[in-house]
Specification:
The complex is a heterodimer of chains A (329) and B (279).
Chain A (H helix, E strand, L loop, with lengths): L3 H10 L2 E5 H15 L3 E5 L9 H6 L4 E3 L4 H13 L3 E7 H4 L4 H10 L5 E5 L17 H6 L5 E3 L4 H13 L4 E4 L4 E4 L14 E4 L4 E5 L4 H15 L4 E4 L2 E3 L3 H10 L2 E9 L4 H11 L5 E7 L9 H7 L4 H13 L2
Parallel strand pairs in A: 2-3, 2-4, 4-5, 5-7, 6-7, 10-11, 10-13, 13-14
Antiparallel strand pairs in A: 1-8, 6-12, 9-11
Helix pairs in contact in A: 1-9, 2-8, 4-6, 9-13
Chain B lengths: L3 H22 L4 H18 L14 E4 L5 H10 L39 H15 L5 E6 L7 H11 L5 E7 L2 E2 L2 E2 H5 L4 H7 L3 E6 L3 H8 L9 E6 L22 H19 L4
Parallel strand pairs in B: 1-2, 2-3, 3-7, 6-7
Antiparallel strand pairs in B: 4-5
Helix pairs in contact in B: 1-2, 1-3, 1-9, 2-3, 2-8, 4-5
Classes of the chains: A alpha/beta (329), B alpha/beta (279).
Chain lengths: 329, 279
């Protein structure tokens, strides 16, 4: 995932390699469920890929299998949720947010059951498996559904806090987790986690990197790289919550920094960057602005790292985008 | 417990109300509401352990109307059961009304927002499963249209209902044999229907969906321990109004003034015949 140069920057920043957010999710959910028998994990032949094997062994009465049937997964989750169960419906994000989109819209969000939808192996976690297994549309379709909080944690800290927040939420939540180990970013001591709130990980007024999910670390590395190589002070803001968007953090960046670069593991169309752009444009703030995401083309395949590199979602790619943006007349 | 004659009288009055509010709104799913209203009558007046007083009781029975478009029948029956005044239906399909053209939980007594087909059964499976997980005695019922059975999600739910041995779950098929395009058997044939549900592991009974005693017998308890129940209710679309019966255009036809008067005359005459004159 990281070039030798990026690893060196991470080391200089003191970032420690953590584990996959998926594993953090599974352990956090298990710990919560051990003290709350109302919590249920509902899976669609996905307990292995969801790292829920230990959950199933420890709490067999609190895991429900529906088979390879994502529509049924979400419908059953709605029924369980309607009876007061605290449901985590777990399925690969690519299937959960496409095949069962109508169930998400109607059975969960419109009917207002506080179910947590957990999209596992999200984005291009299954990068080599092709477009069938990519979820590069989920922000776009879920942003367009009322009564849903959309969350893409950047590291193990955000993942753990997001699971706890979702368990306590009184309205539907979508959580998006990847399967690759992640660096652990500055945590609660730097910025607390609250649903709906952005987290400023690094101050600065040259370029603002506004990023979500597993691209945040690359933005942080890019900021450190630009400081070391060009003397730029770049702000890095993590947006674990894509919807509702922390508009104050967006506007502060647009007003206070010389340029804004957004980053996401998602198609540019309908994604996080376009949401940010909408906030900036409607506030009438003029700024140099660039969205880095997956373009509307046949998506290249390979590892998540390959795809990130291909589309410039790396330290080097984001730093180059920021530099070019600042250099623009 | 109301008698069959009581229910017959209620159904005639329900039909009159369904037509009244559809006419008033200028929109509605007339044929399907008339085909399923006898089923709703039996459910809400004889079977379901739910009332306005117990509407939030975790142990209440749940009814989820998968064929959400027949919302007028549901609203009229809920109003009769005291969930809200029937006069509220004067806003049916109106601006900012809670009484939308499909069920929503903004209306007292409605358990689930439905309207897109193929959703009710999986939700009812989850509901019945919640009861089983808690060792609670409540039952879950869902009403599906026969045309709706072309939605694949129903068959995902059918698998799960049998897999989890949900004998507290009953799926009722309002088998009126017509859908918007024509005969269900011509649009997408689902027969032999009873064999299909039986093959999926359900206990199946086929009844006359306008026969209160037969419906009651099929619904009053699970058909077989350890299996979910499927009650195939053979019905007539547009039932109760001679010129609407089994005629496709009444799927969402709204009666004009003359048709409305003729329909009411028929229903009033039937009420008079039952009551010996009093409408």
């Amino acid at each position: 995932m990281y070039s030798p140069a990026a690893k060196a920057v991470a080391e200089k920043l003191g970032l420690k390699m953590g584990r996959a957010n998926l594993e953090e999710f599974a352990d956090t959910l298990l710990a919560l469920a051990k003290t709350d028998r109302n919590i249920l994990a509902v899976t669609s032949d996905s307990r292995g890929s969801g790292k829920l094997g230990p959950f199933g062994q420890a709490l067999p009465q609190q895991i429900v299998e529906v088979g390879i049937a994502e529509q049924n997964l979400v419908g059953i989750a709605a029924g369980l949720g309607s009876c007061g169960k605290n449901v985590f419906a777990v399925s690969p994000a690519c299937f959960l947010t496409a095949r069962s989109l109508e169930q998400i819209k109607n059975d969960i969000c419109y009917s207002d059951h506080p179910v947590t939808l957990v999209g596992i192996s999200a984005g291009v976690s299954y990068g080599a498996l092709g477009t069938t297994h990519h979820s590069l549309h989920d922000f776009a379709v879920l942003r367009a559904i009322n009564n849903l909080t959309v969350v893409a944690p950047a590291d193990n800290f955000e993942a753990r806090e997001a699971v706890r927040a979702a368990a306590a939420a009184t309205s539907p939540v979508y959580l998006r987790f990847g399967k690759a180990p992640l660096y652990t970013l500055p945590g609660a001591e730097t910025a607390p986690f609250t649903l709906g709130a952005a987290r400023t990980l690094r101050p600065g007024r040259d370029v603002a990197f506004l990023a979500t999910g597993e691209t945040v670390v690359h933005a942080l590395l890019a900021a450190a790289h630009l400081e070391a190589t060009a003397g730029l002070a770049c702000r890095v803001v993590s947006f674990p919550t894509v919807k509702p968007l922390d508009t104050a953090a967006v506007l502060a960046a647009a007003r206070e920094c010389r340029a804004v670069v957004t980053a996401e593991e998602h198609l540019v169309a309908g994604g996080f960057g376009e949401a940010v752009a909408g906030v900036i444009a409607q506030a009438g703030v003029g700024t140099r602005f660039r969205i880095v995401g997956i373009p509307d083309e046949y998506t290249v395949t390979g590892s998540q790292a390959d795809i990130f590199r291909h589309y410039g979602l790396t330290m080097e790619g984001l730093a180059a985008t920021a530099s070019a943006l600042l250099a623009r007349p | 417990m109301p008698t069959d004659r009581d229910l017959a009288l209620k159904s005639l009055r329900y039909r009159r109300s369904i037509l009244r509010w559809i006419k008033h709104a200028g929109a509605g799913h007339t044929g399907g509401s008339l085909s399923c209203v006898d089923i709703l009558n039996v459910l809400y007046n004889r079977i379901l352990r739910v009332s306005p007083a117990t509407a939030a009781d975790p142990l209440r029975d749940r009814y989820i109307q998968s064929k959400g478009h027949s919302v007028e029948a549901l609203f009229v029956v809920l109003a009769d059961r005291g969930f809200f005044p029937e006069s509220d239906l004067g806003t049916l399909c109106g601006y900012d009304s809670a009484y939308v053209g499909h069920p929503t939980r903004h209306v007292a007594g409605v358990e689930q927002n439905t309207g897109a087909l193929g959703h009710g059964l999986p939700i009812a499976v989850g509901t019945a499963l919640a009861a089983k997980l808690d060792g609670a005695a409540f039952r879950a019922f869902t009403l599906l249209g026969d045309g709706e059975l072309a939605e694949g999600s129903n068959w995902e739910g059918a698998l799960a209902g049998a897999h989890y041995k949900l004998d507290n779950l009953t799926a009722i098929i309002d088998c009126n044999t017509l859908q918007i395009t024509g005969r269900t058997k011509d649009v997408m044939n689902h027969e032999p229907l009873a064999d299909k549900w039986a093959a999926f592991g359900w206990a199946v009974r086929t009844v006359d969906g306008h026969d209160f005693a037969a419906l009651t017998a099929a619904l009053e308890k699970p058909l077989q321990p350890g299996k979910p129940s499927c009650v195939i209710a053979r019905t007539t679309k547009g039932k109760g109004v001679s010129f609407m019966e089994d005629v496709g255009k009444w799927h969402h036809g709204v009666p004009n003034d003359d048709e409305f008067a003729r329909a009411n005359a028929e229903l009033d005459a039937a009420i008079a015949a039952l009551t010996g004159g009093a409408a």
